[in-house]
Write a structure and sequence with these properties.
309 residues; MetI-like fold; globular
Length: 309
């Protein structure tokens, strides 16, 4: 009886779900399956593909099996690219978390200027990456940039930043943290607001100082939000792309390929080098990497995330 009732409920809800399901299938599921099929072909991206009539014939015509995947791993470039992604994450994640927590803590204190601070910190989030990247490209210009001019005022010779193999990725990190810390800061602010004040009252009775209250009350209570922020920022970090394409010279992945990352390689192989199958294989490798890190985080969260309210 319950099964018939649930089936009837599903049929009744289907007309309301149909538009969303159609969009999900058309714009997500079909492209995902198509990219998987393309990843085992040598398609250049130039010949026409018929989705309904000739897609399977197209796959058979261009089919090369796992050659793209074998070529990617035998070439060795993928390890260098993944190391650049890892280097970006190592620099970006701690700095972003620290500044986002700082932003959230500042905005959490009640003051007349709280609303103005929220707007000020959130402006970079609303700014498009094109505009933001161009601003940072000017700020980090070795000759005319504001950053090097300030350093010169204190007698320090500023580096070449985006033209330096050493400083190119840290420059991308600075721009990324500036763009993202307001967004993650607002999420953490919501978590701070949701902490029950009675925990702090109990800590005051026990004689805890500010640091003890922050480490023993705030951070444990904030751990579910921190986990969400880490997961979201980690996934976004692996998909690093627009700032590199705009800030590096002609989108060439920096000096000596210092800022080559996964999505940048996918774009280049697909649309610049005409190797769509190779790019699709790269995208599936990126999917496996992100999925693996997400699964690992879900396992590790049991050790430090506290869902008690």
């Amino acid at each position: 009886m319950k099964r018939l009732k649930s089936k009837h409920s599903f049929i009744s809800a289907l007309p309301f779900l149909a538009p969303s399901l159609a969009g999900l299938i058309l714009f997500s599921l079909i492209p995902i399956l198509a990219s998987l099929a393309i990843s085992v072909t040598g398609w250049s991206g130039m010949s026409r593909v018929s989705l309904f009539n000739g897609f399977f014939a197209f796959v058979q015509t261009h089919f090369i099996g796992l050659t793209n995947y074998l070529d990617i791993f035998s070439d060795g470039e993928v390890w260098r690219v993944l190391s650049h992604n890892a280097y970006f994450i190592i620099l970006y994640l701690p700095l972003m978390l620290l500044l986002s927590l700082l932003v959230a803590s500042i905005l959490h204190h009640k003051s007349r200027a709280a609303g103005k601070y929220r707007v000020m910190y959130y402006i970079p989030v609303l700014t498009s990456w094109v505009a933001g990247a161009l601003i940072w490209k000017w700020l980090l210009s070795p000759e005319y940039g504001l950053v090097n001019n300030i350093l010169a005022f204190f007698g320090v010779d500023g580096p070449l930043w985006l033209q330096s193999e050493v400083w190119a990725m840290p420059s991308i990190v600075l721009a990324s943290v500036w763009k993202d810390m307001g967004f993650y800061g607002m999420i953490l602010l919501a978590g701070l607001t949701g902490i029950n004040p009675e925990y702090y009252d109990a800590a005051d009775i026990d004689g805890a100082n500010r640091w003890r209250k922050y480490t023993r009350v705030t951070l444990p209570m904030l751990s579910p939000i921190l986990f969400y922020v880490i997961m979201l920022s980690l996934i976004n970090a692996f998909q690093l792309f627009p700032q590199i394409m705009i800030m590096t010279k002609n989108g060439d992945a920096g000096p000596n390929g210092a800022t080559m990352v996964m999505v940048e390689r996918i774009y280049k192989y697909a649309f610049r080098y005409g190797r769509m199958g190779y790019a699709a294989a790269y995208s599936w490798i990126l999917f496996i990497v992100i999925f693996s890190f997400t699964a690992l985080q879900n396992i590790l969260q049991k050790r430090w995330v506290h869902y008690d309210s």
